[in-house]
Specification:
Blueprint (H helix, E strand, L loop, with lengths): L10 E2 H11 L4 E4 L6 H8 L4 E4 L3 H15 L3 E5 L2 H16 L4 E7 L15 H4 L6 E4 L6 H13 L5 E7 L6 E2 L16 H13 L3 E5 L6 H14 L3 E4 L13 E5 L5 H8 L3 E5 L22 E6 L13 E4 L2 H8 L12 H14 L13 H11 L5 E3 L6 H7 L8 E2 L9 H11 L5 E6 H6 L4 H6 L5 E6 L4 H10 L14 H7 L3 E5 L5 H10 L4 E6 L11 H11 L1
Parallel strand pairs: 2-3, 2-4, 4-5, 5-7, 6-7, 9-10, 9-12, 10-11, 12-13, 13-14, 15-16, 15-17, 17-18, 18-20, 19-20
Antiparallel strand pairs: 1-8
Helix pairs in contact: 1-2, 1-6, 3-4, 3-14, 8-10, 17-20
The structure holds thiamine diphosphate and magnesium ion.
C-alpha cells in the first residue's frame, strides 16, 4: 500500500521530491544541474529551499557533508547521471567514513532504457552499494514520501552516513496524489540502568581512566554534559582524530588529540590506562596509531565502548562493557553518575597531562626554516579568532598546524575529513558560511589540496560568502614528499608542483587576494582580508624545507640515508 490520499492533488515526481524535502525541513540544496532532473530543479523554484549551484559535484557533496556535520540532519545534494554521480563519489566517501548524515539525489535515465548502457547510464545500487550506507532508485512517484522518509531515517540513525537515491527522468514527470511523510527524528538508543551501574562501579575501582571522544551524533548540549562529567571526575579526556570540537581545549581535563603526530605523552598515558571510555568513536586506523594502541581483539585496558551502532561494538575491539547508545543519550545519563571522591587518585596526573598539552600546543618558540613561520600565523589566529570561528581543512601536512596549535573551544567549529580527503576545506567552508553567514569561517588548504576543489571559490564569490582561505604553499604535495624522504630518500617522484599566483587567482574570481612571505606581514594581511568583506585567499609562501613543525626535509633524508 502506498500513502494514497484522496485529499492531495496530483503532483509530479519532481514536485513530490521537493515537497518531501520541505516536510523534512531541509533548508539548503547543493547541486550541479543536469538535464536528468529538470523537473526537480523546476519544483525548487516554488519552494523556500536555498539552492547553492556549485562548480563540481565533489565540492557540492562536500558542502552537503559540512551541513550534515553542523546540523546533525542530512545535508542534501543533487547531481546528474554518470559523470555527475562519479564526481560526487568523493564526497560520499567522506560522509561514510565521517559518519555524516547526507542524502544525494542522482538524476537517472528513463526507466524504459535501463540495461542498454544508455547515455550516461550507471547502476547506482551497484556503484554506491559499498560506498554509501544505502543506495536505491525510485520507480514510482507514489513511493517518493516512503523512500525519502526511509532515506532520512537511514542517514540519521545508528551510525549516520550517506544515502543515494536515483531518480529516473520519466518518473519525475509522472504524477501521483500522495501526502508527504512526517519529519524524521533520529532513533535514540540509550544505556540501561545496569550498564550505567556497571560503568560507575568500574570507575570507582579504576586507578588511571581516560576518555576518548569521537564519532558523530553529538550536540552542543551533550558536549556540555560531558564537560560537566569530566569536571566532576577530573578524568583526562582526549579527542579522536579531527573530532577536536567535542571538547574545550582549555578545559582542565583536556590532554590533546589522538590523531596524526599525537603527543607521545598522551600515547604513553593511554597505553598505561586501566580503563578506557570510548564514546561515539570507532578507534579506527589513525586514532589507534595504525591499530597499535590497543590489543586486538581484546585490549589489555578495560574498554567501555559507547556507540550508536551495534555493528561497531565488538567489530575490532572486544569491549569489557559495550553500550549501544548515541553520545547524546549517553551523556545525558552521565549526569546521574555520582562524582568521584573529591580528589580521585588520578587527579594530579590529569593536571600534569593538561599542562603538558598546553606546552605541546604552544606555538611560541616553534621555529622552522624560512621567513614565514606557521607558528607565528597560529599564534596570531589564537589572539584574533573568536571561539565560535569555524576552521575547515582537507588533507596535507599543513593541517598538523591546526590540530596541534589551534585550541578548539566549541562544538560546531571544526570541519575536517577523518577520511583524509584532500580538497575538502574549501567546499566545507562555503557550505558552512552559507548556513551560518554571521560566523567567521577560516579554511586552511595546502597548495595541492586547494587545487582539488579550488573552483568552488567561484561559488563563495557568487553567494557573497566572505570566507578566508589560508593557502599554505610549499610548492609540493608535501605529505607524500615526506614519506618519500623517509622510505626512498633523495628520490623525488611526482610530488613537485608549479603553482599559480593564488592572490591573483582570488582577485580574478572577484575576491580579495594577499601574498605573505614573512611572519610579520601576516597580521595586517589577515586584517585586510577580513575587512574586505569578500571571499579572500591569503597565499602563504612557506619554505619547502619546513615539512612539519619539528623536522625538515634534509633531516628526514639524512636520517633515512643513515639507516640504509
Ligand atoms: C583526494 C586525495 N588525493 C590524494 C591524497 C594523497 N595525499 C595525502 S596528502 C597529499 C599532499 C597534500 O599536499 P598539500 O595540500 O600541498 O599539503 P602539504 O602536505 O604540502 O602541506 C596527498 C597527495 C589524498 N589524501 N586525497
Ligand atoms: Mg603543499
Amino acid at each position: 500500500m502506498t500513502n494514497q490520499n484522496s485529499s492531495t492533488t496530483p503532483k509530479t515526481g519532481g514536485q513530490l521530491i521537493v515537497e518531501q524535502l520541505v516536510a523534512q525541513e531541509a533548508t539548503h540544496v547543493f547541486c550541479v544541474p543536469g538535464e536528468s532532473f529538470l523537473a526537480v530543479l523546476d519544483a525548487l523554484v516554488d519552494s523556500n529551499i536555498d539552492v547553492t549551484v556549485c562548480r563540481q559535484e565533489g565540492g557540492a557533496t562536500m558542502m552537503a557533508d559540512a551541513h550534515g556535520k553542523l546540523t546533525g540532519r542530512p545535508g542534501i545534494c543533487m547531481v546528474t547521471r554518470g559523470p555527475g554521480a562519479s564526481n560526487a563519489l568523493a564526497g560520499i566517501h567522506i560522509a561514510k567514513q565521517d559518519s555524516t548524515p547526507l542524502v544525494l539525489f542522482v538524476g537517472q535515465i528513463e526507466r524504459g532504457m535501463r540495461e542498454r548502457e544508455a547515455f550516461q547510464e550507471m547502476d547506482y545500487r551497484s556503484v554506491f552499494g559499498q560506498a554509501a550506507k544505502w543506495a536505491t532508485e525510485i520507480d514510482d512517484p507514489a513511493r517518493i514520501p516512503e523512500i525519502v522518509s526511509r532515506a532520512f531515517h537511514v542517514a540519521m540513525s545508528g551510525r549516520p552516513g550517506p544515502v543515494v537515491i536515483a531518480l529516473p527522468e520519466d518518473m519525475l514527470v509522472e504524477s501521483a496524489a500522495v501526502a508527504p511523510a512526517p519529519q524524521v527524528q533520529a532513533v535514540e538508543s540509550g544505556p540501561t540502568t545496569d550498564q550505567m551501574a556497571d560503568l560507575e562501579h568500574r570507575l570507582s575501582k579504576a586507578k588511571s581512566p581516560v576518555a576518548i571522544l569521537g564519532g558523530s551524533r553529538w550536540s552542543p548540549h551533550s558536549v556540555a554534559q560531558f564537560a560537566d562529567f569530566a569536571q566532576r571526575h577530573q578524568i583526562p579526556v582526549t579527542a579522536s582524530f579531527r573530532r577536536q570540537m567535542l571538547f574545550d581545549h582549555d578545559h582542565p581535563s583536556y590532554i590533546g588529540d589522538l590523531g596524526l603526530g599525537a603527543n607521545p605523552a598522551l600515547l604513553a598515558r593511554l597505553q598505561k590506562a586501566d580503563l578506557i571510555l570510548l564514546i561515539g568513536g570507532r578507534l579506527s586506523e589513525i586514532p589507534s596509531q595504525a591499530y597499535t594502541l590497543l590489543d586486538i581483539p581484546v585490549p589489555e585496558q578495560a574498554l567501555v565502548h559507547v556507540h550508536p551502532d551495534t555493528n561497531e561494538l565488538g567489530r575490532v575491539y572486544a569491549p569489557s562493557l559495550a553500550i549501544n547508545a548515541s553520545p547524546s543519550a549517553f551523556c545525558a545519563a552521565l549526569a546521574k553518575v555520582p562524582a568521584s571522591p573529591a580528589t580521585p587518585p588520578w587527579s594530579q596526573e590529569t593536571t600534569r597531562l593538561h599542562d603538558n598539552y598546553l606546552a605541546w600546543s604552544d606555538p611560541t618558540g616553534v621555529t622552522t626554516p624560512g621567513t614565514l613561520q606557521m607558528s607565528g600565523v597560529m599564534a596570531h589566529l589564537r589572539k584574533v579568532l573568536p571561539p565560535n570561528a569555524i576552521i575547515t581543512n582537507g588533507a596535507g601536512n599543513y593541517a598538523t598546524w591546526i590540530h596541534r596549535f589551534h585550541r578548539f573551544k566549541q562544538y560546531g567549529t571544526q570541519l575536517a575529513p577523518t577520511s583524509g580527503s584532500m580538497g575538502y576545506g574549501l567546499p566545507a567552508a562555503v557550505g558552512a558560511k552559507r548556513l551560518q553567514p554571521e560566523v567567521p569561517v577560516i579554511c586552511f588548504a595546502g597548495d595541492g589540496c586547494f587545487m582539488m576543489h579550488g573552483q568552488e571559490f567561484a561559488t563563495a564569490v557568487q553567494y557573497n560568502l566572505p570566507i578566508v582561505v589560508l593557502l599554505v604553499d610549499n610548492g609540493m604535495y608535501g605529505t607524500i614528499r615526506m614519506h618519500q624522504e623517509k622510505f626512498y630518500p633523495g628520490r623525488v617522484s611526482a610530488t613537485a608542483l608549479k603553482n599559480p599566483d593564488f592572490a591573483a587567482y582570488a582577485k580574478a574570481f572577484g575576491g580579495h587576494g594577499e601574498r605573505v612571505e614573512k611572519t610579520e606581514d601576516f597580521a595586517d594581511a589577515f586584517e585586510r582580508a577580513t575587512q574586505s568583506g569578500k571571499p579572500a585567499i591569503i597565499h602563504l609562501i612557506t619554505d619547502p624545507e619546513a615539512i612539519t613543525p619539528t623536522t625538515t626535509i634534509s633531516q628526514l633524508r639524512a636520517n633515512a640515508q643513515g639507516n640504509q
